């Protein structure tokens, strides 16, 4: 009786590494030049973004410079309670929310409109000239931009008031009038960032398949119809992602521009969380209280980001994660 011995077939994973470590090192060796270029970015975020998180402990302590962070007395949520009970809380909340919301509603669409219209320009030389001049303000520092705004709005010899007086109107002291502060702030934001942010949308438009426009022309579509039914829907994922990022910054208004443009006469509409933190922390050296206010502001910004991401995923199917 003959016994047949069947040969055992090799296992599917035979000869393969037990883990993905070797594959990881292979990818690292392959992309080592790109990873080396990425090192400065990692160092920057480690030192200036994640490193300072350790200092947030002082928001829950009565911080003393002499005793240090760990040696200072623990007070828990005392600084948060004091801030919420302060008469400044609701004023700061309202000013920060309204200024951030109006900036989002007015400043966000302008780069999209500008990019779409600029894409329709057929004169290449004129197109490049307009684009160059439009994003030049983004390379200016906030101090220079605010100085230019102050000069333009000067009540004596400013460009805007000179034009108003030439047309028979009275001059307006824009920076001393509370009702004009948000308009001035949002207008300067649009002027400074519109051209630079439009580059992202122009890059997205450049990635649209040209055959879509050719097919639309054959079907008799006008340029307005192509913008409406091809260009805007094609760049909608980019618009949604940037909208989510911008929505998370509604409560994260930088203190620099507000600090340079506001004055005691406009505090009632211009004072926001960031300028309040600057005054309490650096000018009054109340570090623990200022850290508590800053942590509250960051928490609200995180909540806004999560809400915007959830709404975007539900409405358009796209999100940051």
UniProtKB/TrEMBL annotation:
Listed under GO cellular component are: plasma membrane
Q: According to its UniProt record, what is one Pfam family this protein matches? A: BPD_transp_1
Per the record, membrane topology reads: Multi-pass membrane protein
Instruction: Give the domain of life.
Output: Bacteria
Q: Which GO terms describe its biological process?
A: transmembrane transport
Q: Which residues form the signal peptide?
A: none
Reply yes or no: does the keyword Metal-binding apply. no
Q: Which UniProt keywords apply?
A: Cell membrane, Membrane, Transmembrane, Transmembrane helix, Transport
Which residues are listed as membrane-spanning? 34-60, 97-118, 130-150, 190-208, 229-255, 287-307
Domain ABC transmembrane type-1 positions? 93-308
**Is the Nucleotide-binding keyword given for this protein?**
no
User: Where mainly located?
Assistant: membrane
The entry's localization annotation reads: Cell membrane
Q: Which family is this protein grouped under?
A: Belongs to the binding-protein-dependent transport system permease family.
Q: What is this protein's name?
A: Sugar ABC transporter permease
